[in-house]
Design goal:
The complex is a heterodimer of chains A (about 600) and B (about 100). A 6-stranded mixed beta sheet of chain A has the order 2-3-1-4-5-7, sandwiched between helices. The radius of gyration of chain A is 28 Å and the shape is elongated. Helices cover about 65% and strands about 10% of the residues of chain A. Chain A is α/β, with parallel strands linked by helices. Chain A has 25 helices and 9 strands. Chain B is mostly beta strands and about 100 residues long. Chain B has helices spanning about 50-55, 85-90, and strands spanning about 5-10, 25, 35-40, 60-65, 70-75, 80-85, 90-95. In chain B, strands 1, 2, 3, 4, 5, 6 and 7 form a 7-stranded mixed beta sheet that branches. The radius of gyration of chain B is 12 Å and the shape is globular. Chains A and B meet through helix 4, helix 8, helix 9, helix 13 and strand 9 of A and helix 1 and strand 6 of B.
Chain lengths: ~600, ~100
């Protein structure tokens, strides 16, 4: 007996010791799109991308938070609908966090409207035996929709602290910090099967929730309806695309680019750098490296800041607006049948639309898809056909200036190729597609604060990741030029470039640079087109080939990380010939028909 | 809330979904605006039941059919879901008598 007590004390002491050995680790777990990342941001001061659709977070993020006098490690996890049974790859990541002792306390973040589903998850988290706190987020939206929750009864029933929150406004955050110390193992009866769990959650919900027919969210509900019905939804889609074109293609790619390229760089920065270099840099080699034909400033900076940045920034702004409004998942309803032909389902619209922002990030988002086959097809199609924002920039900049039909031709050819390759891949690859089941988030007015933060961070990300690569690319071009290799590349590429594709020989080097980053290559084309060295047909052919190439080194590395080197190389091996042959075919057809854009 | 008959079938797909279970009909056969209670979710080989269950589509849950074309959209409790026809075939619903 006494021995037992001693043993227990020892155990207790060792537990205290382990607690001191590392900071208290708090995992935020919950259904997709309930606001885990907002709570994480509020607790730690670190911003994680927040959007209004499930699957924004597909990897874990860690941060530090001060709770009382104690420093805690906070872990933001991908949203989960379930922790057992058939789960997707991002859900598996979260299960590992809860299971493997990476977390001492689990804070379940829940959508207050949907307490029934939240409780089904509570019961699954409880099975891992961790102390818990339940945070009922978006309690204001629940009230607006006529939903009232008896928190005291629920807390009594579960035996854990329950916090009502509006995380975007910071309401309930102090209470959540306090509650962490009182986290407890929930009193949830053991449920052997999923249906037992459902029955328990159902009955408990009946006891603590009152739903009245009164709803104050009329406008949002009407909009939500309009966006998913074909009669209203398709015109809305057309308006959205046209607005996107006006803001990004006209305002960003033409007005802003003109102001920056011809104005800021053409009139001030470049002449000033040339003047300074001529005066102060005696070595011609260095001078040329900075301000020559392949100069870091005259080419690298001009490309990245004057040509690509304005379009990327305007695009990220519109894109963030669409993300936060909850509109994008609704497109899945319209796309489901088309995607099914390509071995996917409507859910794939999420990574595809995200790819317009950045193909590399979108490749990671394919984790939300149901089967390995779907993931592979989506990754392939992303790399093949979806132009990223920077590339979209140059496409719109060049073709928007030529004619609308030039732009339409490019998109028709690229979409056609995606469809064809997807159709073939669906038949050649082994495996199944999963059934289309997608949760539609509510339509919300985007919060200007989140929109600006998100756009700012994405622009910074572009500056941090793309600009250095542009400079490296320029340096490489300079070195190749000095070594005389550019002439050699142009000569070697001539049969394909001038023969098959009908392009000027100088485009060879641009296409080679396109391997580094597609948008870098496209920016090169932009300048070529600008100085009148490309005809309309040539511009369309060159851009089509460039769009179909693998986007950039980063995207390739991400494919390798997600699916392995063999698959990565295989994708490259499929895409490169498809890109060149499509360009050749397009060139042939356009010339045979005598098309002039 | 009345107690509901709870059943999860383990039948695999390929079986016709038409046969009614105590007045229940497949959700795919219901018109827009129909309200009802889920009676059964038929399983397939791909874990459909698991996924629907985790989204709250469980026996006893109340559903409203919001839209039937081009895809089927339903409101289950407080969750709006878009599903393809094959999935809606597998959700058996007892429609409510009174349309209120």
């Amino acid at each position: 007996m006494s021995c037992h007590v001693v043993h227990e004390r020892a155990a207790e002491r060792s537990r205290t010791l382990t607690l001191r050995a590392h900071p208290l680790r708090v995992a935020l777990v919950g259904q997709p799109n309930v606001g885990k990342s907002v709570v994480f941001g509020r607790l730690t001061g670190r911003y994680v991308t927040v959007s209004n659709y499930p699957g924004t977070t597909v990897a874990i993020t860690k941060g530090r938070a001060l709770v009382g006098a104690e420093v805690c490690d906070v872990i933001d996890t991908p949203g989960v609908n379930a922790l057992e049974g058939t789960i997707s790859e991002d859900e598996r990541i979260t299960r590992e966090v809860v299971r493997n002792g990476e977390a001492d306390v689990v804070v379940q973040v829940a959508d207050a409207r949907n307490i029934r589903r939240a409780l089904m998850l509570t019961s699954q988290i409880a099975a891992f035996g961790k102390p818990m706190v339940l945070a009922l987020n978006m309690i204001d939206e629940a009230y607006a929709r006529g939903i009232a929750i008896d928190v005291d009864t629920l807390a009594g029933e579960l035996g854990i602290p329950i916090i009502e929150m509006v995380a975007v406004e910071g309401r309930g955050l102090p209470e959540l910090r306090d509650a962490l110390a009182r986290a407890a193992r929930p009193h949830v009866p053991a449920h052997p099967t999923a249906s037992d769990r459902a029955v328990w959650a159902h009955h408990l919900t009946d006891r603590v929730r009152r739903v009245s027919a009164l709803s104050l969210a009329h406008v949002q509900e009407a909009l939500a309806r309009a966006t998913r019905r074909p009669v209203t939804g398709l015109p809305i889609l057309a308006v959205v695309l046209y607005a996107l074109y006006l803001f990004v293609g006209v305002f960003g790619a033409q007005t802003l680019v003109k102001a920056l390229e011809d104005g800021l760089f053409g009139r001030y920065i470049n002449p000033a750098s040339v003047w300074l270099a001529d005066r102060f840099i005696p070595v011609p080699f260095v001078r040329e490296f900075l301000v020559g034909q392949y100069g870091l400033i005259t080419m690298g900076l001009t490309y990245s800041i004057a040509i690509v940045l304005p379009v990327v920034a305007t695009f990220f702004l519109v894109f963030g607006f669409l993300e936060d409004s909850g509109y994008i998942p609704r497109l899945a309803i319209f796309c489901d049948r088309i995607f099914r032909v390509m071995g996917l389902n409507g859910k794939a619209v999420l990574p595809m639309v995200l790819g317009l922002g950045c193909d590399t990030m979108a490749t990671m988002t394919t984790r939300i898809l149901g089967t390995p086959k779907e993931r592979l097809i989506a990754i392939l199609l992303l790399a093949l056909g979806i132009p990223c924002s920077a590339q979209l920039a140059t496409i719109m900049g060049i073709l928007g200036g030529i004619s609308f039909s030039a732009l339409a031709t490019l998109f028709a050819v690229v979409l056609g190729q995606m469809f064809l390759v997807g159709w073939l891949a669906a038949r050649v690859l082994k495996g199944e597609r999963s059934e289309f089941i997608l949760e539609l988030p509510p339509i919300r007015w985007p919060r200007p604060g989140n929109l600006l933060t998100k756009t700012r961070l994405r622009v910074w990300w572009y500056l941090g990741e793309a600009v250095p690569l542009f400079l490296v690319g320029t340096g490489l071009l300079f070195a190749l030029d000095k070594a005389g290799a550019l002439v050699w590349i142009s000569a070697a590429g001539r049969p394909v470039v001038t023969g098959l594709l009908g392009l000027p020989a100088s485009t060879s080097q641009i296409l080679v640079m396109g391997f580094l980053r597609r948008d870098y290559g496209a920016a090169g084309l932009f300048q070529l087109a600008h100085s009148g060295q490309l005809t309309g047909v040539q511009a369309v052919v060159a851009l089509t080939v460039m769009t179909l190439f693998v986007p950039c080194v980063a995207n390739f590395l991400m494919m390798v990380r997600e699916r392995g080197l063999k698959t990565g190389l295989a994708i490259l091996g499929v895409i490169t010939p498809v890109a060149i042959l499509t360009g050749a075919g397009l060139n042939y057809v356009l010339r045979a028909l005598g098309v002039q854009f | 809330m009345s107690s509901v008959h709870l059943a999860f079938s383990s039948r695999t797909r390929g079986r016709a979904p038409q046969e009614p279970v105590g007045g229940a009909r497949p959700l795919s056969s219901l018109g827009e605006g129909t309200r009802g209670v889920v009676v059964e979710v038929r399983a397939d080989a791909g874990g459909r039941t698991d996924r629907l269950l985790s989204l709250g589509v469980t026996p006893g849950a109340s559903v409203v059919v919001l839209q039937t074309f081009p895809g089927i959209v339903l409101l289950c409790d407080q969750t709006e879901l878009a599903v393809e026809r094959q999935v809606a075939d597998a959700i058996l619903v007892r429609p409510q008598e009174s349309q209120s």
